[in-house]
């Protein structure tokens, strides 16, 4: 999505690296920069099924915008889910549902991942969209703040 500040900043950050190994290291660094999800939310209710590693994605709705927090037991996957959280958090449900994950290809992330990891990303994106649909229905009913689903 051209003109999106979050995506543009990521493209600039990762565009500074020419080869996959440098991007890989930056992706791991990116994941380490993100705050850890509280262990009380690392439960089955928030687990992303279909991932090779364990991934948890915790949603909240604040002032009509989705707030996401995440964790993973694998450093590479933590970097990937952190990218998704960075891009999709603090957006309205409608924005999330319209935002395509093309930025992952622009960053050169997906082309170097195994089929299992690529499938895991699709499951993470599906979970984000599911949360967006849920919160979209709540916002339509005038509910703009939800701490826990």
What's this, in brief?
By secondary structure, the chain is mainly α. It is 51% helix and 11% strand.
Give me some keywords for this one.
single chain; 149 residues; Sufe protein. Chain: A; globular
Structure description:
The chain has 149 residues and is mainly α. It has a single domain (5-140), classed as Alpha-Beta Complex (Sufe protein. Chain: A). The chain is built from six helices and two strands, in the order ααββαααα. The chain has helices at residues 5-15, 20-33, 75-88, 93-98, 102-106, 115-140; strands at 55-62, 65-72. Strands 1-2 form a two-stranded antiparallel ribbon. A hairpin with a 2-residue loop joins strand 1 and strand 2. The model has no long low-confidence stretch (mean pLDDT 91).
Order of helices and strands: HHEEHHHH
**Rg computed from alpha carbons, rounded to a whole number of angstroms:** 15 Å
In one word, what is the shape?
A: globular
Output mean pLDDT. Answer: 91
Number of domains: 1
Counted beta strands: 2
| Through-space gap between termini | 29 Å
Strand order of the largest sheet: 1-2
Percent of residues in helices comes to 40-55%
Q: Indicate the CATH architecture.
A: Alpha-Beta Complex
Which band does the percent of strand residues land in? 5-15%
Low-confidence stretches: none
CATH C-level label: Alpha Beta
Number of helices: 6
